[in-house]
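Weekly modeling sync, notes
Attendees: AB, CL, MP (scribe)

Item 1: holo prediction request
CL wants a bound-state model with copper (II) ion before deciding which constructs to order. AB pointed out that an apo prediction alone won't tell us much about the pocket. Agreed to run with the ligand included and paste results into these notes for async review.

Input as submitted:
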Amino acid sequence: MKTISQITRLALIVTGIFSMQIAAAHITIDQPSASAGAYQKLTFKVGHGCDGSATNVIKISIPVSVSGTKPMPKAGWQLTTNIAPLTTPYTSHGKTISSDVREVTWTGGPLPDAYYDEFSIQVKLPDTPGKLYFKVSQQCEKGSLEWVEIPQEGQGKGSLKYPAPSMDIVPVNDHEHMHQH
Ligand SMILES: [Cu+2]
């Protein structure tokens, strides 16, 4: 016969496992690392809604060090971009580029909490190696989640409730070496 306290303990364990799964299902980038300066596809994985509510808007902020962003259209979602002038224009294919995409928004769905989906962009990554963060706003039929937290020096990502999706920009040679195995 189970006592009340045993049942409570079991419930706590189940809740613990469940919240671990939630933590593992944040919005993340599928590509953990890529070479500096590379033209790279980045896939943002949306693992859950807002506290059970279906997702109907995903908005990605593009860091200033990232250029030439091209979002991938998705069936059932309306795609919009926010283009802003650049403080430092650059040259691409012999043309001067003086403005760039700073925000990409997919509106539609809705993507039920029980399902999973992916949103992709193609970008030119920064030439400087380091950690790269993309702030994402997830809006749902009920409520919203702002994936904007950036860990402090030495702070683990796991301690953040709503970490901004991140990736590592590695020196070109390191990355080529990694893929030779
Ligand atoms: Cu999560």
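Recorded for review: Residues 22-23, 25-26, 47-48 surround copper (II) ion (CB under 6 Å).
Action items: CL to compare against the apo run; MP to circulate these notes.
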